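Lab meeting, item 3. Inverse folding demo.
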């Protein structure tokens, strides 16, 4: 492992929550981030399509010199991680297993809630990862498809956010869960609004933070300050705008790239 960059991909801007944690913990690593803004959202798409997109995204990062691939997108991690591991020669880290490990270590009641996109919840990847660690734990999943547009609209503190969160979460709250996994890149941005509904007795697990432990086991300490490179497949300006909110700073290196075949002539 040398001064090659860490590669991170997501379906769009949400994976910047993972980027932010990694940048904080590894200030000297170069990072290449790819957000597939032309094809977001992945959540409602079929596993086959998400696998296909994920392979293209990872290949782009490998071409950019990535020494390790972080699959920041929960939907991709849920359905494409094994495919990526089988075809790539570099280590691949998804967000599901780290999130599951953190959740299992925190629950006392043995009842864990998972929220994510339709694709993530339907895949039952979190349930499998959790019950592999402890088969006695009961897992309750709930997809919350309106959370992503809420965040993209910048409405995390808007009054409608509270109503929508309450509507989605009330079936989980009835199950007496004591841990809730925020199983989607965008949900950490709703953390305060979610905790206002869930209260103090439910611990929220942010997979973005959980990934750090896995990375610590792999990366050596770099000495010189790390650089950031951002690529998207569409809508640079929207990405720039939301990124400045999530990262609390302006991003400089941002470029649009095309993946796969295209019939569109620029
Ligand atoms: N990045 C996706 C995830 O974490 C959320 C947005 C989407 O549906 O593409 O599952």
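The presenter then showed the designed sequence:
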């Amino acid at each position: 492992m040398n001064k090659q960059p860490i590669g991170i991909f997501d379906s769009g801007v949400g994976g910047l929550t993972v980027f932010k944690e990694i940048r904080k913990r590894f200030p000297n690593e170069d990072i290449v981030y790819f957000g597939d803004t032309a094809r977001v959202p992945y959540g409602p798409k079929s596993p086959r399509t998400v696998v296909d997109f994920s392979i293209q995204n990872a290949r782009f990062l490998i071409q950019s010199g990535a020494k390790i691939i972080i699959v920041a997108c929960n939907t991709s991690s849920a359905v494409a991680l094994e495919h990526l591991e089988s075809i790539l020669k570099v280590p691949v880290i998804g967000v599901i297993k780290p999130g599951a490990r953190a959740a299992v270590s925190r629950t006392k009641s043995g009842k864990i809630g998972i929220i994510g996109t339709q694709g993530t919840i339907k895949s039952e990847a979190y349930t499998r990862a959790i019950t592999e660690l402890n088969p006695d734990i009961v897992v309750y999943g709930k997809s919350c498809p309106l959370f992503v547009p809420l965040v993209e609209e910048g409405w995390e503190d808007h009054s409608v956010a509270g109503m929508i969160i309450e509507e989605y979460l009330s079936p989980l709250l009835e199950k007496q869960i004591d841990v809730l996994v925020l199983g989607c890149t965008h949900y950490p941005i709703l953390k305060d609004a979610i905790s206002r509904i869930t209260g103090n007795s439910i611990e929220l697990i942010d997979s973005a933070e959980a990934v750090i432990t896995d990375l610590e086991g792999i990366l050596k300490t770099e000495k010189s300050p790390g650089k950031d490179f951002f690529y998207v497949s569409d809508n640079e300006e929207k990405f720039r705008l939301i990124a400045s909110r999530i990262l609390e700073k302006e991003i400089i290196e941002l470029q649009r790239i095309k993946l796969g075949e295209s019939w569109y002539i620029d």
